[in-house]
């Protein structure tokens, strides 16, 4: 088949085949390209969409980007079940197999060092959200009868908000410290934009943790025990993922 080469990840050789029905970006099944004892997982993509200019335009198209990212992630997820992949950036494309081999040779030392560090490890994501508003008082607020009453009520509301955010940040800090002590490595990401994530509440922790696959169950239990620990805090756990945050190639 003709077309450009879309590269999902680099990994060590693996014996277990990927699912026969798995399709990648642009609907083409991924295949393994072996070179210098490393494997690049690639598929064919059409020039009309993935050459430099059309790809740049497509990356501004949210629907196209979402579909492509979903297909890309599907291949990474499948690889994670059979090996430890080093994910490459979304939209990593080369002219042909020779271009992929040249890329492997140029970065071979880094690839091997990173794969050694990530072998047998997965990434877990933990987010903490605080409620957008303080818990309602069981008694309705009295209507202000004067300017002084109004200012007093406003000061009380402000103090309530400040106390809630302080409580949220303290909880998130303690949780991150606890999980970081268990994990081999951790990364703090910027809080998520609620407009983009559609999540309710204020994101006060957005972190990733590198955990040996063999210890993942214990890590999950540790996170689960914190849920409901502090009223008004919502803890969300995602994973296990390929170690995007620790690969130096996050999309």
UniProtKB/TrEMBL annotation:
Stated name of the protein: Gas vesicle synthesis protein
Family in the record: Belongs to the gas vesicle GvpF/GvpL family.
Entry's localization field: Gas vesicle
Annotated spans, Disordered: 131-150
UniProt keyword Protease present: no
GO terms under biological process: gas vesicle organization
Pfam families: GvpL_GvpF
Primary localization class, coarse: other
Any one GO CC term of the record: gas vesicle
């Amino acid at each position: 088949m003709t077309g450009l080469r879309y590269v999902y990840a680099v990994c060590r050789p693996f014996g277990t085949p990927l699912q026969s029905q798995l399709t990648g970006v642009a609907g083409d099944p991924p295949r393994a390209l072996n070179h210098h004892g490393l494997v690049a997982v690639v598929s064919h993509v059409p020039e009309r969409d993935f050459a430099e200019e059309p790809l740049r335009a497509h990356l501004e198209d949210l629907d196209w980007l979402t579909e492509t990212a979903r297909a890309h992630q599907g291949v990474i997820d499948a690889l994670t079940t059979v090996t430890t992949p080093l994910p490459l950036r979304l939209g990593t494309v080369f002219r042909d197999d020779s271009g992929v081999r040249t890329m492997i040779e140029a970065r071979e030392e880094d690839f091997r060092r990173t794969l050694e560090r990530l072998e047998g490890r997965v990434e877990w994501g933990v987010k903490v959200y605080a409620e957008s508003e303080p818990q309602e008082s069981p008694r309705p607020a009295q209507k202000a009868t004067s300017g002084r009453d109004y200012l007093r009520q406003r000061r009380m509301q402000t103090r309530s908000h400040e106390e809630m955010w302080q409580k949220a940040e303290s909880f998130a800090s303690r949780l991150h410290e606890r999980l970081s002590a268990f994990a081999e490595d951790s990364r703090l990401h910027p809080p998520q934009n609620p407009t983009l994530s559609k999540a309710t509440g204020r994101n006060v922790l957005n972190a990733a943790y590198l955990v040996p696959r063999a210890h993942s169950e214990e890590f999950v239990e540790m996170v689960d025990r914190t849920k409901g620990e502090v009223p008004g805090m919502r803890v969300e756990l995602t994973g296990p993922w390929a170690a995007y945050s620790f690969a130096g190639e996050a999309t």
